[in-house]
Amino acid sequence: MKKKIVILGAFILGVFISTYIKSLDPNRVYITLGQTESIESEVENTKKEIKNLKETLKKNKKTLNEYKEAKKNGNESIQTLMQKELEEVKELSGYSTVTGPGITITMRDSERELKDGQNPNDLIIHDIDILRVLNDLKKAGARAISINGERVLATSKIKCSGATITVNDTTYGQPFIIKAIGDIDLLSVAINSPESYAKSLKDIYGINIKVQENNGNKVNLFAK
């Protein structure tokens, strides 16, 4: 008897839900949680693109004003400005050695003992770890970055294989030494702040990360 009542109740509930769904506004669009997260991600990416475009526009306006000013001062000023832009392009593309203030980061695998049930890979540095650290440095305004002397470009491929990291098709063993040139304070915060990815690697997994500030850092040009 109880079983029949349960079945009847389930049937009535199903009919009720079906009727309710049909009664919903047909012009209204209903989305899942997964779709919501996807939309939120797209919105964030769009915001970043807009921000980058605004920064590019601002930079282009500044360059235009500099050319207008240089035109007033004659051809020599224009040549100086063009030479300055050429050096900036060479720096960004990796075709010039960059020197200046910055930081040096030395990374090694964790020396902690494995906990019961812990994955050994948790204590090893992976390519995603390197990429996240590089991304934080770029956000902090790093002008140039290298890993074990290998210049890192926007097109550089970084992948791990066991205890080694391959950068631009060249494989390196530990320690992984990352050099970044830029504002020392901003770069240091990007690595040492409580919210940074590097700090999480140190605190959670015991990854060895040491940061050294240097007023005379050097990042070599791309030599491939």
Automatic annotation (TrEMBL):
Residues 36-84 form a coiled coil. Transmembrane segments: none annotated. Gene3D superfamilies: Protein of unknown function DUF881 (3.30.70.1880). It comes from the Bacteria. The keyword Coiled coil applies. Keywords: Coiled coil. PANTHER family: UPF0749 PROTEIN RV1825 (PTHR37313), UPF0749 PROTEIN YLXX (PTHR37313:SF2). Belongs to the UPF0749 family. This is Division initiation protein. It comes from Clostridioides difficile (strain 630).
